[in-house]
Amino acid sequence: MEVGMASENAIRWAKAAVLLSAACVLIIAISFSGLKRAGRVTAASSRRPVADFRLSDLSGKAWRLSDHRGQIVVVNFWATWCGPCQEETPGLIRTARRYSDKPVAFVGVAMDDDAATAVPPFLREYRIPYPVVLPDSSLTMAENIDSLPTTVLLDRHGRIAKTWIGEVDENTLQTVIDELLREPA
Questions:
Q1: What is the pLDDT of residue 22?
Q2: Considering 64, 86, 164, 172, which has the largest number of Cβ atoms within 10 A of its Cβ?
Q3: Which residues of the chain have pLDDT under 50?
Q4: Which pLDDT score is estimated for 83?
Q5: Cα(97)–Cα(130) distance, rounded to whole angstroms?
Q6: What is the Cα–Cα distance from 122 to 90, expressed in whole angstroms?
């Protein structure tokens, strides 16, 4: 009987050790993924410029990148059907409002196939304070978008400073914007 109890205890301890090891691996993986996501901006000397583009919103009002030289520009590619896009939108809205008096511009690029129908209810529900435009052939950046959401952060000279594929954390975005605001104009 004592041998049976010892075996059961040994099995319990082995299972506990395996679970503890798995938990440690998971915590380490999450920590490193967070570091990777936060990351630093690309060095100014290595940043690639983005070709100017002019896109229109659903009402036909134009938004042109070159009109925002001297500003940091947050370009968020998203779609109404995208769960992570829906989750990150409130953080983007708060961040846009936080920097409304700073040289920072936000623009959303709605990647929905049926944008005229799908986007207006989304804009009303979330009360998005920044322009939301529709992609066209002038937006060469969109050719490289493989996953939604994708957020591209441009420096004051229209060069790519940071790209997030997947949901961007609001605190991380604000940290990187602050870093770019500290750079000489």
A1: 38
A2: 164
A3: 13-37
A4: 97
A5: 9
A6: 12
User: Sign of the C-alpha dihedral, residues 48, 51, 52, 57?
Assistant: negative
Q: Collapsing DSSP states into helix, strand and coil, what is residue 91?
A: helix
Burial of 152 (0-12, 13-18, 19+ CB in 10 A): buried
Question: Which phi and psi (to 5°) does residue 41 adopt?
Answer: -75, 160
The span from the CA of 55 to the CA of 136, in Å, is 7
Residue 156 has, within 13 A of its CA and on its CB side, a CA count of 12
Q: Which CATH superfamily is domain 43-182 in?
A: Glutaredoxin (3.40.30.10)
pLDDT for res 136: 87
Contacts of 77 (CB under 8 A, 6+ apart): 109, 111, 142, 145, 148, 149, 150, 151, 152
